[in-house]
């Protein structure tokens, strides 16, 4: 495939430092088969990746995972990113963020921290993460404020915590959050595996939207609340990643370069590894980063659609998961002949106007369950849990 003639540089580099994480969220966006991924990049590898990304033109640098605090070279990497001129962001569950580490990260030049909660109640937070971390997260939130960082909270929403949206906002206000991201579950990775267990009803989503609107009117600029409507409940897809190979460059723990978080699960993509090519080469010339750039790859109905410059045909991973073809229109789109699959998933969440019971237990993101998913473990491990 010929590369697109002029390709703007990536805006941000997402360094997925590790798939290790002490939490076990059933909506985790990591690949379900992460247990098969070995050989994390070394500190020297990451330093090279950051230098090359900055030389390419990237300005934002996110450290995520898994839990990036599992890496004991995080402080060194943050310092290097800062000296290179990146705006650095730590995306964390808070587990491992002690006062000592925070002080070192601050000195190293860390600009921004995003702290995730699973719910406003200890019971649900600890159930969903499969850990006792609720009180610890609250302490970490206070530490973040004490170190004079803006408090940026994130909470993934689904059928279990959508009715708590008011309490989640109250908690964010109590903790002094300046920014709260209420991100409805997107169904990739572990969330797709648990879609029936997580899918809300339309009424739940509408009610939560109204609660958010009421709070916004009441609290003004005290805390900015972002409510990301689940794309299943819209009739147009989101402009995934701001366009394929347009602004986002992810690097996975083993060095695979990713045009989107879930690209590892797309068949037929020859994903490049940073061990085999420079980032510039990967960004400009690799098959994977050019596969869905521009609109030359599009089929009907996207090809002739006036909206293709706005949403780029939606999400390639969703197209593959639901249409079996990564180049199809995202089935979320009302113009897709497969929209009925989305509607069926929404309808299945409801029985006689109430949440439908779900037959299968939640599959938590655990090493044992990941080994099963990647063919490395037996089905028996799946029921043993963590
Ligand atoms: S979503 Fe949960 S399990 Fe996945 S990396 Fe984040 S904290 Fe860990
Ligand atoms: S047909 Fe394709 S380009 Fe048009 S709105 Fe739907 S997904 Fe977007």
From TrEMBL:
Residues binding [4Fe-4S] cluster, per UniProt: 21, 25, 28
The protein's Enzyme Commission number: 1.21.98.4
Gene3D superfamilies in alphabetical order: Aldolase class I
Record's catalysed reaction(s): [PQQ precursor protein] + S-adenosyl-L-methionine = E-Y cross-linked-[PQQ precursor protein] + 5'-deoxyadenosine + L-methionine + H(+)
Domain Radical SAM core intervals: 7-222
Source superkingdom: Bacteria
GO molecular function list: 4 iron, 4 sulfur cluster binding; cyclase activity; iron ion binding; oxidoreductase activity; S-adenosyl-L-methionine binding
Note on how the cofactor is bound: Binds 1 [4Fe-4S] cluster. The cluster is coordinated with 3 cysteines and an exchangeable S-adenosyl-L-methionine.
Any one biological process term the GO annotation gives: pyrroloquinoline quinone biosynthetic process
Keyword Iron tagged: yes
Entry keyword annotation includes Signal: no
Recorded metabolic or biological pathway in which this protein acts: Cofactor biosynthesis; pyrroloquinoline quinone biosynthesis
Description of how the protein assembles with itself and partners: Interacts with PqqD. The interaction is necessary for activity of PqqE.
Family per record: Belongs to the radical SAM superfamily. PqqE family.
Chain's role: Catalyzes the cross-linking of a glutamate residue and a tyrosine residue in the PqqA protein as part of the biosynthesis of pyrroloquinoline quinone (PQQ).
Protein known as: PqqA peptide cyclase
Upper taxonomic lineage: Bacteria, Pseudomonadati, Pseudomonadota, Betaproteobacteria, Burkholderiales
Gene: pqqE
């Amino acid at each position: 495939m010929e590369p697109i003639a002029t390709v703007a540089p990536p805006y941000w580099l997402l360094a997925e430092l590790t798939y290790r994480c002490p939490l076990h969220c059933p909506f985790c966006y990591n690949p379900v088969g992460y247990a098969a991924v070995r050989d994390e990049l070394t500190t020297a590898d990451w330093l090279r990746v950051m230098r090359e990304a900055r030389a390419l033109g990237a300005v934002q640098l996110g450290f995520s995972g898994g839990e990036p605090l599992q890496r004991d070279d995080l402080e060194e990497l943050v310092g290097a990113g800062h000296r290179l001129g990146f705006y650095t962001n730590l995306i964390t569950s808070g587990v491992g963020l002690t006062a000592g580490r925070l002080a070192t990260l601050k000195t190293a030049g860390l600009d921004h921290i995003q702290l995730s909660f699973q719910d406003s109640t200890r019971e649900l937070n600890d159930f969903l993460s499969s850990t006792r971390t609720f009180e610890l997260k609250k302490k970490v939130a206070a530490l973040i404020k004490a170190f004079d960082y803006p408090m940026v909270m994130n909470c993934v929403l689904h059928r279990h915590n959508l009715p708590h949206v008011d309490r989640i906002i109250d908690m964010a206000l109590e903790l002094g959050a300046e920014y709260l991201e209420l991100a409805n579950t997107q169904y990739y990775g572990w969330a797709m595996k648990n879609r029936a267990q997580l899918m809300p009803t339309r009424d739940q989503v509408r009610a939560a939207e109204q609660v958010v609107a009421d709070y916004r009117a009441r609290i003004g600029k005290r805390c900015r609340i972002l409510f990301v409507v689940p794309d299943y409940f819209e009739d147009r897809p989101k402009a995934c990643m701001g366009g394929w190979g347009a602004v986002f460059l992810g690097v996975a723990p083993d060095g695979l370069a990713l045009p989107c978080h879930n690209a590892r699960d797309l068949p037929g993509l020859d994903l490049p590894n940073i061990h085999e090519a420079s980032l510039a080469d990967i960004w400009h010339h690799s098959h994977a980063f050019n596969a869905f750039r521009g609109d030359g790859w599009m089929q009907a109905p996207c090809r002739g659609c006036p909206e293709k410059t706005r949403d780029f045909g939606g999400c390639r991973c969703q197209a593959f998961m639901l249409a079996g073809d990564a180049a199809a229109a995202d089935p979320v789109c009302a113009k897709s002949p497969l929209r009925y699959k989305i509607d069926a998933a929404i309808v299945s969440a409801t029985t006689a106007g109430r949440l439908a019971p779900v037959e299968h237990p939640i599959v938590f993101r655990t090493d044992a369950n990941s080994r099963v998913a990647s063919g490395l473990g037996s089905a028996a491990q799946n029921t043993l849990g963590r």
